[in-house]
Amino acid sequence: MTSTPMTHDPMNRRPATSTPMIINALGQLDNPNAPRSADAAAQLNQSSEQLTIDARALTDAHASGLTAVNITLGYTMGGLPPYEHTLHEIDVWDGIVREHAADLLKVRTVADLHRARESGRIGVVYGFQNAVAVGEDTDRVATFAELGVRVVQLTYNQANHIGDGSMAPANRGLSDIGRRVVEALNEHHLMVDLSHSGERTCLEAAALSRAPVSVNHTGCRALADLPRNKTDEELRLVASRGGFVGIYFMPFLSLSGHATAADVVEHIDHAVNVCGEDHVGIGTDGPVTSIDDLDAYRADLAEHVALRRAAGVGAAGERADTLPFVLDLRGVDQFRELIHLLERRGYRSERIEKILGRNFLDYAGRVWSKTT
User: Which residues, listed in sequence order, are joined to residue 306 by a DSSP beta bridge?
Assistant: First the structure.
């Protein structure tokens, strides 16, 4: 495999054949430099309507070689009505995809992931980072599935009625309704994402689920002992049941709060050693487009972190000086740079292709196989 930049032909929109399939198990489509997005950065909740999916965001996504990305929509935290807000956010994203039909493709099936790559579009996977919108009515899972949601994360950092998040001190497992939610997600062939979950919630959900589960964006607690990272026991159980683990490009990869590209490689390597090379991928938790003015962004970040702390939704390791991305692994070259670093680590091309996208593709096939 080479790390030669992708060439993108605007006439047929087909990516260069040398580019591996790149699927970001949790990321963003946004131009964070645009005024609307920059203004939203300091707020506790950024809605999908505040995203800026403009020519730069789309051009950068194409230039990076990205095939598909799981984006976050719907209720995550705060005082919004969870179910109603989530339905509205799905409508917003349907509108975004329609508006940019030449560049974006809503992903419902594995075939759509292949179709996105073949047509030179970016596949958009609809996902939640909190399942509060299900409420006490598990029939809502069927509604979300019909509307095209394909990934449902059970909890955010705090506890909800389903289970405990990674920052919930009691570390309780799944509730009765939580078990029913997992069963409903299995019934409708949606991914059960255990990112942000507490340890017991993760272990119980992974053991209960009839289908493989995922941790779409995390790090390895054996390397950085922070609650947002997963223990080897959690990683091993998820993988042993056919699941998927995505490593993020986040400050939690280092106890210093200043993670580097080298830390990303270390966490990927550790996850591969624990899970096996068929179960590890990437879930960067960030956009492709880089922030241009880091000084201005740091001022907004300090306000945002303070708001998260005051609302009780922050994670251990979040500080005003911890950038929520890896400074030397960002922008349109982030995936090519990761390929280069993994090559230097001695990873063969087949293993790199698995990590960049094929493992997520195969995992999606095991879960979404009966979705329509």
Answer: none
User: What totals of helices (H) and strands (E) does the chain contain, helices first?
Assistant: 13, 9
* Residue 111, Cβ density class (10 Å: 0-12 exposed, 13-18 middle, ≥19 buried): exposed
* Residues of the chain scoring pLDDT < 50: 1-17, 372
Question: What is the pTM for the complete model shown?
Answer: 0.94
* pLDDT (tens digit per residue) in 45-60: 889 999 999 999 999 9
Residue 244: how many other CB atoms lie within 10 Å: 28
| 297-339 pLDDT tens trace | 888 888 888 889 888 888 988 888 899 999 999 999 999 999 9
Q: Which residues of 185-223 are buried (b: 16+ CB within 10 A; e: fewer)?
A: bbebbbbbbbbbbbbbbbbbbbebbebbbbbbbbbbbbb
Report the distance separating Cα 105 and Cα 68, nearest Å.
Answer: 9
Q: 168, 178 in Cβ contact below 8 A?
A: no
Instruction: Quickly tell me which residue has 């179910």 as its tokens.
Output: 83
Q: Which of 130, 111, 113, 131 is nearest to 122 (CA)?
A: 113
